[in-house]
């Protein structure tokens, strides 16, 4: 979904006649926050995929650490368009995860729609460090992962993910100013 948000943002930037090289020159504050967040997330994904007892036991805390690091990155960049929207999406995810024991709840119906039986079995066996099956005791289930996007990437998303992706698209599409027309081009347009 976030890849699509970047593509949508680039399309918006093109329509706005933004010099796409200007996007590459954007100055993000605290970009170094991405390094530990990425390293921790890779650790959780790789070791979680092989059923590491450490990740099963502490993976939810590592995922929460990643979210807190990303909150710091977003807070440092609230001056950019879209970042406040992205922050709202991340806070919605953090809220539902925090209220549900440190794991993102995911609905059985959404999981079934992804057609990934191994993932379903892993979550049902409580072996996924970042997800738990939503049930009767799940808090704020409407903020959980319940939006399946099977044709795109066989994944399930939360409303917070959708809002965060929208914020990312806004950031990419509106952070760089449109190209200025030269005086010669303005005179030619008047004629």
Architecture blueprint of SSEs:
Blueprint: H1 2-15, H2 20-24, H3 34-49, H4 53-76, H5 83-99, E1 104-106, H6 108-113, H7 117-124, E2 131-133, E3 147-148, H8 150-153, E4 156-157, H9 159-174, H10 183-190
Parallel strand pairs: 1-2
Antiparallel strand pairs: 3-4
Amount of beta strand? 5-15%
Write down how many β-strands occur, each being a DSSP E stretch of 2 or more residues. 4
What's the helical proportion of residues? 55-70%
Terminus-to-terminus distance: 45 Å
Principal-axes geometry comes out as elongated
**Mean pLDDT, rounded to whole units?**
84
Please report the number of helical segments. 10
Order of helices and strands: HHHHHEHHEEHEHH
**Structural class from helices and strands?**
mainly alpha
Cross-sheet strand order for the largest sheet: 1-2
Keywords:
191 residues, two-stranded parallel sheet, 5% strand
Explain how this protein is built.
With 191 residues, the protein is mainly α. The chain has one domain (2-16, 30-175). Helix content is 62%, strand content 5%. It is built from ten helices and four strands, in the order H-H-H-H-H-E-H-H-E-E-H-E-H-H. It has helices spanning 2-15, 20-24, 34-49, 53-76, 83-99, 108-113, 117-124, 150-153, 159-174, 183-190; strands at residues 104-106, 131-133, 147-148, 156-157. The strands form two sheets. It has a two-stranded parallel sheet. A two-stranded antiparallel sheet has the order 3-4. Helix 1 (2-15) runs parallel beside helix 9 (159-174), helix 3 runs antiparallel to helix 4 and helix 5 packs antiparallel against helix 9 (159-174). The longest helix is centred in the middle third of the chain and has 24 residues, at 53-76. The chain is elongated and about 70 Å long. The N and C termini lie far apart (45 Å). The model has no long low-confidence stretch (mean pLDDT 84).
């Amino acid at each position: 979904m976030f890849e699509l948000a970047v593509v949508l943002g680039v399309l918006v930037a093109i329509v706005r006649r933004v010099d796409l090289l200007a996007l590459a020159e954007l100055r993000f504050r605290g970009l170094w926050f991405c390094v530990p967040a990425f390293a921790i997330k890779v650790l959780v994904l790789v070791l979680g995929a092989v059923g590491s007892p450490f990740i099963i036991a502490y993976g939810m805390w590592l995922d929460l650490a990643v979210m807190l690091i990303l909150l710091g990155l977003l807070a440092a960049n609230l001056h950019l368009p879209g970042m406040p929207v992205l922050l709202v999406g991340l806070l919605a995810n953090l809220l539902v995860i925090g209220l549900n024991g440190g794991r993102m709840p995911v609905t059985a119906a959404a999981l079934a729609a992804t057609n990934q039986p191994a993932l379903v079995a892993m979550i049902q066996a409580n072996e996924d460090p970042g997800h738990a099956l939503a049930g009767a005791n799940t808090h704020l289930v409407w903020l959980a992962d319940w939006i399946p996007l099977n044709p795109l990437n066989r994944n399930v998303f939360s409303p917070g993910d959708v809002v965060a992706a929208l914020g990312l698209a806004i950031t990419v599409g509106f952070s760089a100013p449109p190209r200025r027309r030269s005086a010669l081009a303005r005179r030619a347009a008047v004629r």
